[in-house]
Structure formats: structure tokens, C-alpha cells
Amino acid sequence: MSSPIQRCGVGLRHGLFCLRCCWALMLVMFAVGIANLAWSAPLALLMLYEKTDRAGDRIVRPAGVVLILPGLPVMLSRGPMTFEHHHS
Description:
By secondary structure, the protein is mostly helical. 76% of the residues lie in helices and 0% in strands. It has helices spanning 4-35, 37-52, 56-68, 71-76. Helix 1 (4-35) crosses helix 2 (37-52) and helix 2 packs antiparallel against helix 3 (56-68).
């Protein structure tokens, strides 16, 4: 039986491993999660599938392409987006 300190150490190592490999996706999830649950939920399901299913590693690149392609025209169009804030 392991002690609570040992279990915390294992959890900490696992968390750091996840942070090292998935920091960019975590950043996207944070930004999207604040903005829109309709984007956050499918991305979370994609991450779950990637990490838990045997075929998860084969879905990563196609999913990345599918997510990047719609964003390219926005990035390459008129430059930075502007946000207008109107008070009524």
C-alpha cells in the first residue's frame, strides 16, 4: 500500500507529463472554455478519445487539419480582429 504522499507524487508527475505534451491544447481549451461551451465540449471529447482509445493517435493529425483549415482564412484575411463594445 502506498502512502498519500507517494500517491500525490505520482499524480504530480502525471500532471506535469500531461502539461508538457498538451500545453497548447490546454491553452486552447481554456480560451474556448471561457468563450463557448459548444466548442469546449467537442474538443474535450476529442481529447478523451485521443487519450483513451487505441486509435487515438491516428485521429490527432486529421483532427488538427480539420480544426486549422477553417481558421486560416480568418488569420490571413484583414489582419487582427477588432472587438467593438457597445453599451445600450
